[in-house]
Structure formats: C-alpha cells, structure tokens
Amino acid sequence: MLKFIVLPLISALIGYITNVVAIKMLFWPRRPVNLLLFKLHGLLPKRRAELANSLGKLVEEQLLSLDDLFEKINTPEVREIISRQIITAVKDRLGEIIPRIVPAKITQVIVDSLEKLIRQEAEHMIRQIIDSGHEYLTKEIQVSRIVEDKVNAFDLDQLEEMIREVSSPELRAIEILGGVLGFIIGIIQDGILLLL
After folding, report:
1. pLDDT tens digits, one per residue of 121-131
2. Do 86 and 123 form a contact (C-beta atoms < 8 A)?
C-alpha cells in the first residue's frame, strides 16, 4: 500500500523540480556550457538580441508609434496652448526691447497688432512646424531601435529581476502545476500497476 502513495509523491516532486529547473533555464546559465553533445544556454541570455528586437518592433508598431505621439500633440488644444505661450513671450520681449521713450499708447498698438497677427497665423504656423517635425522625426527616430538598444543595455540580472517582478505569480503557478501534474501521473502509474 505504501508504494501506491510513494509513487505519486515522487512523481509530484519530479514534476515540481523539473518545472523549477525549466524556469531557471530561462535565465541561466548566462554563458553557454558544453555538455558533450550539446550546449546549455539560458533562453534570455541566448536570445536577448532577438527578444529586444521583437520587443522594439512590438512597441513601435502596436503600442507607441511616432504617429500616435504626434496625433496626441497636434490637437487644437495643444496648438492654443502654444499660441498663448508665444504671445506671452512676444509681449515680454517687446517690453524689453522697445525703448522707454516710445509712448505707452504706441507700444500698446504695436503689442496689440502683433498679438492679433500671432493669433491669426499661429494655428497655421504651429501646424506646419508640427508636420515638418513629424516628417523629420519619423525619418530620424526609430522607436523600435531605441527600445531595442535600451533592452540590450540592461544588465541580465536587471532584466531577470524585471521579468520576475512582472510574472512571479505565474512562474510560481507553473512550478506548482508541475508538481500537480506529476502527482496525477503518479496516480495513473499506480492504476496501471494495479491493472498489471
């Protein structure tokens, strides 16, 4: 009777340990280890460059493209905020450069005229600036490349820690599931032994 209890327990232990080792092998060994017929190398250290490249493409194509950013920036509200900032800056600068000998009424006419001109033209000018900036930055900046470089620059320990922080409950569940499946397989083996 004891052997019918021991077999599922041993199978559960084997299943649990196998999954713990498999999860460890996502990150370890950091450098390839020759084991006669094959090399043992952790998934993350071995495929880091490919993972970084895929992550970069995913971020740029699915999560955060420059088009998305410019869509959020190029809105009437943002253009209005920029217009107000320009008007404030121009008024402050005019106050500094117009000589004090110019009468206040003339200064006010100049300031009002410039403000009116800026209000009329700012929307169009800001839109042109944003569009040309968008065109230039789309050619010059690749979000995927930035993400890829950042991921490749991470220390492997940092990367492992980040992944474990995000997926710790799931990794733990995988380890436990290995034990549960091993236990079930042990019970099935007991059933087969009883039949034979």
Report:
1. 887 888 888 88
2. no
Q: What is the pTM of this model?
A: 0.59
Q: How far is it, in rounded angstroms, from Cα 100 to Cα 55?
A: 60
Using pLDDT thresholds of 50, 70 and 90, give the confidence band for residue 32: confident
For the chain, what is the largest distance between any 2 Cα atoms, rounded to a whole number of angstroms? 113
With cut-offs at 50, 70 and 90, classify the pLDDT of residue 97. Answer: confident
What mean pLDDT, rounded, does the chain reach? 86
* Domain layout of the chain by residue ranges: 2-195
User: Do residues 53 and 60 lie in contact, with contact meaning Cβ atoms separated by under 8 Å?
Assistant: no
DSSP, collapsed to helix, strand or coil, labels residue 100 as coil
Separation CA 82–CA 50 (nearest Å): 41
The tokens describing 97, both together, are 């450069």
Instruction: Note whether 123 and 79 are within 8 A (CB).
Output: yes
3-state class percentages of the chain: helix first, strand second, coil last, to nearest 5 = 85, 5, 15
CB neighbour class for 152 (10 Å; exposed up to 12, middle 13-18, buried from 19): middle
Cβ atoms of 15 and 185 within 8 Å: the answer is: yes
- Look at residue 133 and tell me whether its pLDDT is greater than 90: no
Strand partners, 38: 35
